[in-house]
Predict the structure.
Amino acid sequence: MKAIVFNRFGAPDEVLELTTLPDPTPPGPGEVVVRVTKRQLHPGNLMMVRGKFNFPMPADGFLIPGADGVGIVEAVGEDVDASSLKPGMRVIFNPSPGAWAERVKTRVELVTPIPDDLPDAVAVQMLPNAVIALMLLREAQRAVPEAGRETPILLNAAGSSVARFLTLAAHRRGLKVIGAVRSENGAKMLSRRFPDLPVVSTAESDWPDQLRQAAGSRPLQVIMDPVAGAMIGDLVPLLGDGGALLLYGVMSPEPITFPLSALAREIMFKGVSSSRWMQQTSAEQRRDDVAEAIEMGRGSPEKFEVEAEYDLAQFADAVKHIERANRHGAILLSSDL
Ligand SMILES: NC(=O)c1ccc[n+]([C@@H]2O[C@H](COP(=O)([O-])OP(=O)(O)OC[C@H]3O[C@@H](n4cnc5c(N)ncnc54)[C@H](OP(=O)(O)O)[C@@H]3O)[C@@H](O)[C@H]2O)c1
């Protein structure tokens, strides 16, 4: 099978290569082999290639990026219940390392069949971004149970794919959210996608005041931020005493600036990661999360545009594309385009 691999951490354009690997061995008990048809590229995929996660590189081995995708079940272990999963079914999977290959062997509990009316191009965007969004909403409620009721939750980088799920899932729960994006153009694009979402561009010098106003001139209770960097120093003062900053990404190359006044004001600063979903979340909650992700995709397919689709062999162009600013949709890597 074709696969994208790397054998040292570094710049994606220097270390990633297309190769041919043996197909996975037949699935054992509790396992399933999926022929992957599409994967969504995520900023986190490139961070992993750059060695930003504490992921060990196997000694004289290699890694395959990607951990999620959509595909067709090719084979299942002999103990797998055929009424729940059988060859030929369309499925999404997450988290299963090695998704940038034509086939993935994974555990049956990480694979979910998808309904016929959910197109591959939408289904492929459901995981893991919906998972981190639902985890963030649970963390917000744990930190400040009334968050989003009177005072809206602030989503930074609100044009991102994760923030799209956050907005949809918050609205399903009757929670208020407001968004911040880094450009005027991004604000316009987001307002077209979510006409009811108050959006502020941080390119404007008075953006903190605009956000205070959008929050009804009340201090914020929860901010969800995947940018970090120096901006943290501007976001924390928007929080009221005892408020929470949930950090789930580090897109800024700058070091984090955390104002010390936040200590006296008992601001909670918490990292949230979908890599803890398997350990931290019950099997029942995980099933509910995946079911809600599918519901969001079915209910609002127009929110999940695709900006470009590349064949697996064109991975280098796809990787360059994901790093462009102002994208309006997902970048997909497909097999057999
Ligand atoms: N913790 C976890 O488990 C987890 C899981 C999934 C994703 N994430 C993180 O969530 C974040 C979003 O992922 P995604 O897949 O939703 O991304 P995405 O769809 O590729 O969107 C990235 C967004 O971030 C904005 N952005 C990029 N750099 C920025 C900066 N320096 N300042 C402000 N905005 C910036 C972009 O704005 P423009 O539109 O202006 O270009 C774009 O709207 C990433 O940091 C990712 O690592 C974390």
Summary: The first strand starts at residue 2 and ends at 5. The CA atoms of residues 312 and 333 lie 5 Å apart. The radius of gyration is 20 Å. Residues 42-44, 128-129, 132, 157, 159-162, 181-183, 186, 226-227, 248-249, 251-252, 272-275, 325-326 surround NAP (CB under 6 Å).
